[in-house]
Amino acid sequence: MVPADRLLAFAAMSFLLIVIPGPSVLFVVGRALAQGRRAALTTVVGNTLGAYVLIVAVALGVGAVVERSVVVFTVLKLAGAAYLVCLGVRAWRERGSFQAAFTADKAARGSLRTLWEGFAVGVANPKTMVFFAAVLPQFVDRGQGHVTAQMLLLGLVFNIIAVASDSAWGLAAATARDWFARSPRRLSLVGGLGGLAMIGLGVTVAATGRKD
Question: 11, 13, 60, 66: least CB-packed within 10 angstroms?
Fold first, then answer.
C-alpha cells in the first residue's frame, strides 16, 4: 500500500490545505450561525461525502479529464458558485424568521436536505477539486501497485483531517450563535450576515480558479 513517508507527507499537505478556510469551511460556519450545531455537523458529513466523490473520480481517472478540460472544470465551478449564491439569497430573505427557527424543534428542518446541501458544496469545491486532480496522484507509489486503492486510502486520510477541522469550525460558530440567539435583532443580523457571506463565497468561487 502507500509507503509511510508518502502517507505522512500527504497528511501534512492536506492539513495545511484544510486549516486555511475555503468554501467548505465557510459554508459550514454559515450553516452553524444560521441553524446551529446539528446543521453544522450534518453539513460537515455532506461536505465529506462530496469530497470523497471527487477522490473516487480521481482514482478512477475521471479527475484527469476535469483537470485537463477547462470547459468541464468551469461548468462544475460555476454550478457550485450559483448554488452558494442561491442559498445565500434564501438565507438573507429568511433572516427575520431565524428566531422562530431557533426556538422550534431543530429536527423540523430535514437533515437529508442539509446533508444534500453540504454534499453539493463539497463535490463542487474547486479548491479540493484541483488538489485531488493535481496533487493526490503524486503521492501514489505506482511501483507498489494497487494505484486506485492507494488513492482511496489517501483520500480517506484527507477526509478524516477535514472532518476534525470542519467540525471544530462549525462547533465554534454554533457556540457564538447561542449568544446571538438571546436577542431577536442579533439573530436576524447574524442570519443576514450568514446569507451575505454565502453570496460572497459564491461570487469568490466563480471568480477564482484556472482561467486558461
Answer: 60
Q: How many domains does the chain have?
A: 1
Range of the domain at 119: 23-205
Distance, in Å, from the CA atom of 64 to the CA atom of 51, rounded to the nearest integer, reads 16
pLDDT by residue (tens digit) across 129-170?
Answer: 777 876 777 788 878 878 888 889 999 999 999 999 999 988
In a domain, 6, yes or no: no
* Closest among 177, 175, 199, 27 to 114, alpha carbons compared: 27
For residue 5, tell me if it sits in a domain: no
- Coil, helix or strand at residue 155: helix
How far is residue 78 from each of residues 5, 38, 100, 126, 189, measured CA to CA in Å? Answer: 37, 28, 33, 10, 28
